[in-house]
Amino acid sequence: MNIVITGGAGFLGVLLARTLLKNGSLALNGAAPAAITTVTLVDRAQPPADLMADARVHAVVGDLNDLLTAKQALPAGTDLVFHLAAAVSAECEADFDLGMRSNFGATHQLLEACRAQTAAGKQPALVFASSLAVFGDSPQQPLPAVITDTTLPTPQGSYGIQKFIGEQMVTDYARKGFVKGRSVRLMTVSVRPGKPNGAASGFLSGMIREPLANLRAQIPVPASTPVALASPARTIEGILRAAEVSDAAWGARTAVNLPALRTTVGDMAAALEKVAGSKATALLDWQIDAATERLVGSWPSTVDAARARSMGLQPDTSFEDIVRGYIAGNPDAVTLK
Amino acid sequence: MNIVITGGAGFLGVLLARTLLKNGSLALNGAAPAAITTVTLVDRAQPPADLMADARVHAVVGDLNDLLTAKQALPAGTDLVFHLAAAVSAECEADFDLGMRSNFGATHQLLEACRAQTAAGKQPALVFASSLAVFGDSPQQPLPAVITDTTLPTPQGSYGIQKFIGEQMVTDYARKGFVKGRSVRLMTVSVRPGKPNGAASGFLSGMIREPLANLRAQIPVPASTPVALASPARTIEGILRAAEVSDAAWGARTAVNLPALRTTVGDMAAALEKVAGSKATALLDWQIDAATERLVGSWPSTVDAARARSMGLQPDTSFEDIVRGYIAGNPDAVTLK
How confident is the model at residue A334, as a pLDDT? Predict the structure, then answer.
């Protein structure tokens, strides 16, 4: 089986690639497990050395839109594409054209590339990483208390709109038989290792990651702000399940909400203190940023992920466990307690 | 006030232009009525002679995408655009690329043209004609019994998907301040005069129009098929209202369902017989077409148009009245009774 990951050198792409290579096989769409022959990582950046050392890994480095235009992003004979590449939420608010190019344009071109492979005789599968950010609260249209798989998305940011448009395209390209396409809506992933990115939700990782590296971190929203989170492990599990389940188990062609742990930013800080001590939380600077508060505050916090549950997916059980999992997986993390 | 109508030589475009010219003024967005200075009709076809005889009317004839690329579709100083141009439902199912070009691509380019005018100093308003076809019934995701303004659209055709994507773009371009954009979802318009077009719903006009011209007409769905209709007059009223009401009266940035008369194809035939006699209904050929039955059968029939109602819009009261209205407005119609 030949797998392509767009955004393959990003945090989730690398984690997904490592998981796939470790598993060695994948049961696609309810079929028997098949050995993974190649994993092609398409990204602006070079993948890390451990991945490049694996003979199954190929890197295609460049701008995704340019690579798609040059017909270099999707190798012939691709069985499965995980489309993770995206411009993130705060970037898209700051630069509308960047978001339309990266989130709308590249997704459209990628679907066309899949369609061309189907026309050439072999229909690829595609898992599209959509986002919780398709949901947005506004005074004119308040979100319901609980988000379900059939709640009408009313995005309050360009990132959410572009992801929702991507879902619609995946649905119709799938209905037409141009690709076997499925969309999963990722919750906010915490704790992300590595460097801060341009996501408005970035502080939800930074507020744990930075103190555990003995660095200060800013929290730009009030402690009472509710959030819907998933650990990296649960997120990868959800992305993989979207490729694995049968059509019957998947059900409708619309996007599936992944499970979320509902917590608040204040409770996240309390969990950090419980695990890593008050010297860790003393590194947190609570300093409201209006734009971030508006965008993050528009996202829902309570998600009933019924379809994901029917596929055996569960949310994380506690944020304390997420923090402990992050420390266990990141030997450099320092607890100051 | 300078008004542009895309699809301005089509049936609805012509009717809208005649209405605007007769009214002479328009109260845009809750403001005082302003005199209509120009009405620019953008269409592949030349507008009819009565419109061209009006000194306020300008025609821009050509392919909308090409005109937009050449920056010729939107005159400088445009105050209001009615975007009616579209590839219709059966065309989009038969030719996916045509639909993406006409319904997605042209709408995107038109929004960019509006954005450029805003950047140049004057923000235009835009009313986007979306469609009932954004809603679609499927075994995996049955439609609720009653459609509301917050029902999740799950289009079962490319036309519906492309219209729904158009709504999302209008919403985000409006949120960003690039255009004052609003989307209204048109119900199936019946009775359309003129020639049959490529819409899967075309027979819902043809089954009245053709017998009233002493011609045979095919009905490709069972008599029990429920449908949601609006007369041309109610449809134009809804499109105009979307331009007229204030932001407060409009409410949320998502699309507004226009009101619909719920009836069945069998009851439509009965209304024809009551008004025009059994010689008219003897001209109907009931002959199922599977593709049309699938697409038309996936559309909803019962719409609770609460937002439209709050703007004073009401559905037609009976299909008999619609048939009588068609005969009154079309002197060539023959009743064989």
Answer: 73
**Residues of B (246-275) whose Cβ lies below 8 Å from A:** 251-254
Q: Which domains does chain A have, with CATH numbers?
A: 2-187+230-259+303-315 (3.40.50.720)
Residues in chain B closer than 8 A to A168 (CB atoms): 155, 161, 164-165, 168
Query: CB B165 to CB A161 under 8 A?
Result: no
DSSP secondary structure letter of residue A265: H
Q: Which of B96, B150, B169 sits opposite A152 (nearest CB)?
A: B150
Residues of B in contact with A169 (CB under 8 A): 161, 165
Give the separation between CA A22 and CA A41, rounded to whole angstroms: 16
**Interchain contact, A252 vs B171, CB within 8 Å:** no
Chain B CB within 8 Å of residue A306 CB: no
Kindly state whether A154 is in contact with chain B, defined as any CB-CB distance less than 8 angstroms.
yes
Helix axes A11-23, A232-244, angle to 10 degrees: 60
Mean pLDDT in chain B? 95
3-state secondary structure of B39: strand
- Under 8 Å CB-to-CB from A235, ≥6 apart: which residues? A12, A186, A187, A189, A258
State whether residue A138 sits within 8 Å of chain B by CB: yes
The predicted structure's pLDDT at residue B196: 82
What is the tens place of the pLDDT at every residue in A30-46?
999 999 999 999 999 99
Instruction: State ipTM.
Output: 0.94
pLDDT band for position B335 (cuts 50, 70, 90): low
Of A161, A176, A254, the CB nearest to B141: A254
Q: How far apart, in Å, do the first and last CA atoms of chain A sit?
A: 47
User: Across the interface, do A168 and B155 touch by the CB < 8 Å criterion?
Assistant: yes
Q: A335 pLDDT exceeds 80?
A: no
Task: pLDDT band for B199, please (50, 70, 90 cuts).
Answer: confident
The per-residue pLDDT for A336 is 58
- The stretch A140-168 carries a mean pLDDT of 95
- Across A84-150, where does the E strand assignment appear? 125-131
